[in-house]
Design goal:
By secondary structure, the chain is an alpha+beta fold. 41% of the residues lie in helices and 15% in strands. It is globular and about 50 Å long.
């Protein structure tokens, strides 16, 4: 199991992400290496007798991304997680070496060009802007966006929630998507001083003290997707 401090709020989790560098949200290939598994019991998902629910960890995502200096997206085997800004250049350096820019005329290129022109869009707005409005188009479109997140071409800027008649946010919220270049600048997505292989080695060696029961190969699998 991963060694970690007690975590009861978004600020504590953001601080731990800054320390560890990488943290899946819900699960990973390494037991215990997930935000859901390290936060206090009171922060887990709970359903109330009246049908309502509460999930503090889920609500923390927005503040951690917008105020905690972390990058959020589907980076780990197509599943969501956090990466600190400090480690983002190395992560981009390695991941983009096996995920080049989309081919001209491809759907992925259309998605990136649309985001580039709009700045940021919630997922359903981006889907409509790219023409994915027909039946059964949602899951198909989402798979393209997931691949672009895995390639470090799209990240979540924040989360947008609908507002009820009393002015309160509700529901699961929508991801506000953008490109990391627009959010952080082009230089923040580059690591010219290291090769992709050197970035991978550096990331693996950084995580090893946090995951003493995991081997190098197991840790490397987090990044080789």
């Amino acid at each position: 199991m991963m060694k970690h401090p007690e975590i009861y709020n978004a600020a504590q989790l953001a601080a731990f992400i800054q320390q560890i560098g990488f943290l899946p949200l819900l699960d990973s290939c390494i037991p215990g290496f997930a935000a859901e598994q390290i936060v206090a019991d009171d922060c887990h998902y709970v359903v109330f007798p009246d049908g309502g629910w509460d999930w503090p960890l889920w609500k923390w995502k927005g503040p951690i991304v917008s105020e905690g200096g972390c990058v959020y997206g589907k980076f780990f085997g197509g599943k969501a997680g956090f990466i600190s800004r400090e480690w983002w250049p190395d992560f981009c350096n390695f991941r983009r070496s096996s995920h080049p820019m989309p081919e001209e005329g491809s759907i992925e290129e259309t998605i990136l060009l649309t985001l580039g022109g709009q700045g940021s869009l919630i997922t359903r707005e981006l889907r409509a802007a790219c023409g994915f409005t027909g039946p059964k188009m949602r899951s198909r479109f989402d798979s393209y966006v997931t691949r672009l997140q895995m390639a470090t071409r799209i990240v979540t800027q924040d989360f947008v929630y609908p507002i009820d008649k009393h002015g309160h946010e509700y529901g699961w919220g929508w991801s506000l998507l953008t490109t990391p270049e627009q959010l952080f600048g082009r230089e923040a997505c580059q690591c010219p001083e290291r090769t992709p292989k050197e970035s991978l080695q550096r990331m693996v060696e950084h995580l090893m003290p946090f995951l003493p029961e995991a081997g190098k190969l197991q840790i490397a699998k987090l990044f080789i997707k």
